[in-house]
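W.,

You were right to be curious about this one. When I first looked at the sequence I had no strong expectations either way, so I just let the prediction run and decided to look at it fresh. Below is the sequence, 265 residues in total, followed by the output.
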Amino acid sequence: MKKLLTLVLLFITISTFAQDKIIKKNGYVINCKVTEIATDEVKYFYSDNPKLIFGIDKAKLEKVEFSTGEVIAIKSDTFMDEEYYSNQKKHALKIAFLSPLFGHTELSYEQYIKPGRSWEMALGIIGLGIDTYGINAKGVYTKFAYKMMRKPDYYSQRMHYSHILKGAYIAPELALRFVSYDDPYNDYYGTYDEDARSEDYGFALTMKFGKQWVIDDGFIIDLYFGVGYGIGGEQQNGPIPFGFIAGPSEMPLAFTSGLRIGWAL
């Protein structure tokens, strides 16, 4: 009986003095007893002075290691906490709203990667729309962009995106295009050929700046413009405008802009 009592007292003593560890982001370790992990702070005391309770901001911490071996990672950046977005739609299908008025139709698909990040791919069919330029253009273009949503310069605890696909963003975008079109004045000697057509291959690497709105976890409005490098041909009315505008090799400057509407999936 005495041995059992001794073992119980020894266990209680060890449990009393066993230390938890609070590990800060700078690597500093606080050996203590943790009493509470609250929303904004972690509370603890030192074994030699259990009546004095301290608190430390969770934004300064990396993790808490308990004497039992349990480890709790501290998520101080609530923008990256995926639990806030677990019930939101994370895909989107969009159309360039005005593109049919300018001789092409563009569809795009956006896929969530992680909070604040998504990729987007677009496909444009040249000739599927009103022949505004009167050149009977036919062709295709494609775009690929990596979108990075902006965070505020300053934020408090528990702030997060109102929707996983909503917000101001920047996005590097690569675009490739092939188009053929009527070009009756393309003959080397300057003669007129009514049936003559020209072909053009173009590309653009732009940095897009935009903002996307998501209404009621469904309807999407995406407005953007971009500038960068690119090469593209010219037709009788000026630069080829489908998907992007790019200058000749002597001036490889490219521009893009658009208004897309769609639906979150």
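Here's what jumped out at me. The chain has a mean pLDDT of 85. And, maybe more interesting for your project: Residues 82-264 form a domain with the Porin fold (CATH 2.40.160.20).

Coffee later to discuss?

I.
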